[in-house]
Design a protein that fits this description.
Blueprint (H helix, E strand, L loop, with lengths): L30 H6 L4 E3 L19 E3 L1
Parallel strand pairs: 1-2
């Protein structure tokens, strides 16, 4: 298998007062909000047993690392 190197843009500097994302915030980060904020990449961390119900939803709009 050939070596594949993934390239991702650098993250902006984090504001000291920035709030960490928590699960109850999920309603606030629906598709229009993600697009409004210029989100292009999403990291999805899950266990193998969660693969049937935690899936990338908008593969045509975002780059996912699962």
């Amino acid at each position: 298998m050939e070596d594949v190197k993934l390239e991702f843009p650098s993250l902006p500097q984090c504001k000291d007062d920035a709030e960490e994302w928590t699960y109850p915030m999920r309603r606030e980060m629906q598709l229009p909000i993600l697009q409004k904020h210029g989100i292009t990449h999403i990291i999805c961390i899950r266990q193998n047993i969660e693969a049937n119900f935690i899936k990338p939803n908008f593969q045509q709009l975002f780059r996912y690392l699962v």
